[in-house]
Amino acid sequence: MADVTMRVWRGDASGGVFEDFVLEQNDGEVVLDVIHRIQATDAPDLACRWNCKAGKCGSCSAEVNGKPRLMCMTRMDTLPSGPVTVAPMKTFPIIRDLVTDVSFNFVQAAKVPALMPPPMPEGGYRMFQEDVERGQEFRKCIECFMCQDVCHVIRDHEDNKQHYAGPRFFIRYAELEMHPLDQNDRRDFIREEAGLGYCNITKCCTEVCPEHIKITDNAIIPLKERIVDAHYDPVAWLGRKIRRKPKTSAEAADVQPAP
Amino acid sequence: MSDPTYEHHEYDVLIIGAGGAGLRAAIEAKQRGLSVGIITKSLLGKAHTVMAEGGMAAAMGNVYPEDNWMVHFRDTMRGGKYLNNYRMAELHAKESPQRVWELEQWGALFDRTKDGKILQRDFGGHRFARLAHVGDRTGLELIRTLQQKVVSMGTDVFMECKVLQLVHDAEGRIAGCVGYWRATGEFVTFQAKTVILATGGVGKSWKFTSNSWEGTGDGHAMALWAGAKLIDMECIQFHPTGMVWPLSVRGLLVTESVRGDGGVLRNSLGERFMFNYVPDMFRAETADSEEEGDKWYDDHSAGRRPPELLPRDEVARAINSEVKAGRGSPHGGVFLDIASRRTPEFIRRRLPSMYHQFMELAGVDITREAMEIGPTCHYIMGGVQVDADTEETVVPGLFAAGEVAGGMHGANRLGGNSLSDLVVFGRRAGLGAADYIAAGNAATSFNQDEVDAAIKEALAPLERTEGENPYTVHHELQEMMQADVGIIRNAVELEEASNKLDEFTERIKHVAVKGGRAYNPGWNLATDLPAMMTVCRATTIGATLRKESRGGHTREDFPNPDPELGKINFAQSSDGGHWDSPITVEESPILILPPELKALLEEAH
Fold it and tell me: I need a labelling partner for B64 at 20 to 30 A (CA). Which of A207, B199, B314, B556 fits?
């Protein structure tokens, strides 16, 4: 097969450049295979993350020819001829080469008010397939963070990271809100702390999701509707004022004793 | 106490590894009110647990009410060819249903039966449909649930930190560990009253493996160096169905659920060859015609189970034989066919990630064509010898759970018993560590000399100006282990392997690494090589001594099981505690089953 030129971004937080590597192509290879061959030969210190190499762990996200992709699931023979550029995700600070500091996502994860189920009956909970399926769609998420990477709310506005959770966590909130067992209420939290209102449903997240989760249609829009109902409906507002205390912290929600 | 040069942390319980076992141990220790730190080589949520596909075995009896822990215990022991630590198999069978149910309290969403209970699926070696699952991504569900629980409890997680070595106190008790941050290459020490190893497996020392880069046997090796014993290191599971083509994905796992849900194996002649490979031990419970086997899928009382669902060791050997006899597929595997047996809708619903994986990586539509598959190095049954109830090793304060621990699965693990192993023994390790601390036995000092030595050794490859590329050494080690200590072994090749391992030891001492310490994969690999070397050595020694075939250990020069060898584990210890120290071996008698459990094994199928 013809040789291929891999144009790989090399550098760290202080800056970097694209470096060209010319390699022979092998049948059936994915981008990650070629990156691994560069590591094994020309550049053993080329930094990239990977684990499962099967599209299941979401570690090897990078921007291939400018688009966020899992390197392990991107066949070389599906890319147009000519040099293949591989760059780190833009939304997150660079650590080195293709590796970025994704700790923003772990900070957001720590804020999520946990599931609050009723006590478990003998022999386990009863739930029905059609009820769990909605949440199961969102639980397919492999946390590749490519939806976070393309979301222009944070891609282009670093400041917004302070008060915006991003699509990965909107599907997490949707999953919890639709969970058949959940008794927690996160509606104020999602509006005020997670910044759902910043999303103007351009669907960039849905387009890049390697698990084909319908992030915008099935999670963000229903969440927005739910919050609008709760927040702007005067009857619901009054009821909320009279009835309940919001339970929004992880600690407050973490009430289940070990079985 | 500690050297101020390095970042330093202190915990009651330090857990190395953030897969299912490590996270479950953390939850338990945290619930006991202890301070807990978790260290992982990767990011949180990326551990190899995510790769588990088919499900977690637990005798809940939701699909077949006649299922119970006794049948599960029996299946596990028979699958393990009776080399198991029976007490672990007993605890596992009894406790796994509770461990599955508690995951639902923490947010897991398993597939359901019509009446709303957790659905259970068929798998090899399990008499009843027993695996709780979510499509074919059960491992992801398990790790995400545990991860979210751990995070909601405010547990400290140290990501992308490679642990080099365990550290003792002056009395030889475990006192913590030393490692480095992959992002910066700076060293860090952790002092702890107890350490729980939950580092997973060793597959990365073989060429064709389902394991990720993390499976370098760090925990196995560090335990051995620290004074613990390794058992059954020769017992390695080659999963029968890994992808064989394209070459770059060779070894990638194809879930056993394909067979559990009706898929069959065929050779190049189109024959369902597994009918020719039913061993005597399983003959009474295995269908003897295709017709009978097919009836079984819908109703287990209408026929006996098809031979495609024999335990994994049997199926892997059969595939190996077919390929050797010239009846393989074009790329050196055999065919796994579900396309001709189930509707496209069924396949896409039940096996979504397999559909996706073959479509995107091989250009094969599994709803229309058969898959090409062959055996791949998947799991090590052997590991650190532990007390069944507490998971404590012979080194005070050191515990091990999950794949790094040995005994539970004997000579061969049944599919689905791994995810349940993680949560059953992860929890018990957390409890064991808490009880150890409560008893007031914990370490009182921190051996700085061990820290200094480990750091000096880790830096050596960076300081050499000339030497071999660690990637070259690693690739050649994988080739050698695949060829000489692979699925079928013999005395000649094992001796050759042993000699070559001496050469690899010397080569590893002379690898040189380019670049700096910050996120340098070449250096990271160089620091993984000592552990890989220890594991390869231990497996080769065990395989040489076990002059019989049993479960995941097959000797062509000793093709049958030897009843005398079935009564012992080979327990290996390090004589010196360094990665190139000699290993000594003793015969460790397996635990004798009490009569009431023995009777369960002898019951008719």
Answer: B314
Window 27-56 of A: residues touching B by CB (8 A cutoff) are 27-30, 33, 39-41, 44-56
Spatial distance between the Cα atoms of B237 and B551, rounded to a whole number of angstroms: 8
CATH 3.10.20.30 for the A3-100 domain, yes or no? yes
Q: Which of residues 57-116 of A touch B (CB under 8 A)?
A: 57-59, 73, 75, 95-97, 99, 101-102, 106, 109-110, 112, 114-115
Q: Which residues of B touch A129 (CB under 8 A)?
A: 111-112
Across the interface, whether the CB atoms of A56 and B137 are under 8 A apart is answered yes
Q: Which two tokens mark A60?
A: 């090897």
- CATH number belonging to the domain at B239-377, selected among 3.90.180.10, 3.90.700.10, 3.90.470.10, 3.20.20.80: 3.90.700.10
Q: Active-site positions of B? A: 312
CA distance A144 to chain B (A): 10
CB pairs under 8 A between A and B: 194
Report pLDDT digits (tens) over B415-469: 999 999 999 999 999 999 999 999 998 999 999 999 999 999 999 999 999 999 9
Closest CA to B40 of B21, B20, B15, B6: B15
The pLDDT-based confidence of A243 (bands split at 50, 70, 90) is low
Residue with tokens 């007031």: B440
Share of chain A above pLDDT 70, in %: 92
Rounded Cα gap, residues A153 and A201, in angstroms: 11
Per CATH, is B448-589 categorized as 1.20.58.100?
yes
Give the mutation candidate from B23, B27, B46, B208 for the A interface (greatest A CB count, under 10 A). B46
Determine the average pLDDT of the residues in A70-89: 96
Contact A124 B102 (CB under 8 A): no
A196 pLDDT higher than 50:
yes
State the pTM of this model: 0.95
Domain ranges of chain A: 3-100, 103-253
A162 membership: H or E segment, kind and range: none
Which residues, including other chains, have CB under 8 Å from residue B263's CB and lie 6 or more apart?
B308, B336, B337, B338, B341, B342
Contacts of A109 in chain B (CB under 8 A): 148, 151
CA dist A62 and A46 (Å) reads: 14
Candidates B515, B511, B419; CA nearest to B466 is B511
What are the residue ranges of CATH 3.90.700.10 in chain B?
239-377
Of B115, B183, B470, which has the smallest distance from its Cβ to A95's Cβ?
B183
Burial of B10 (0-12, 13-18, 19+ CB in 10 A): middle
Give CA separation, B113 vs A125, A129, B95, B118, in Å: 12, 7, 22, 6
The interface pTM score, or ipTM, of the predicted complex is: 0.93
Please give the mean pLDDT across all residues of chain B.
Answer: 96
Q: What whole-number distance in Å separates Cα of residue B374 and Cα of residue B322?
A: 10
What pLDDT is recorded for position A245? 53
Residue B313 has pLDDT above 50, yes or no: yes
Q: What is the identity of the amino acid at A190?
A: I
Q: Are the beta carbons of A259 and B45 separated by less than 8 Å?
A: no
Cβ-based neighbour number of residue B200 at 10 Å: 32
Comparing CA positions, the residue from B509, B546, B12 lying closest to residue B232 is B546
Give the whole-number percent of chain B exceeding pLDDT 90: 95
Mean pLDDT of B48-56: 93
Of the candidates A52, A110, A259, which has its C-beta nearest B51's C-beta? Answer: A52
| Structural contact between residues B12 and B35, judged by C-beta atoms closer than 8 angstroms | yes
Contact A44 B522 (CB under 8 A): yes
Q: Domain A103-253 adopts which CATH fold? A: Fumarate Reductase Iron-sulfur Protein; Chain B, domain 2 (1.10.1060)
pLDDT band at B118 (very low <50, low <70, confident <90, very high): very high
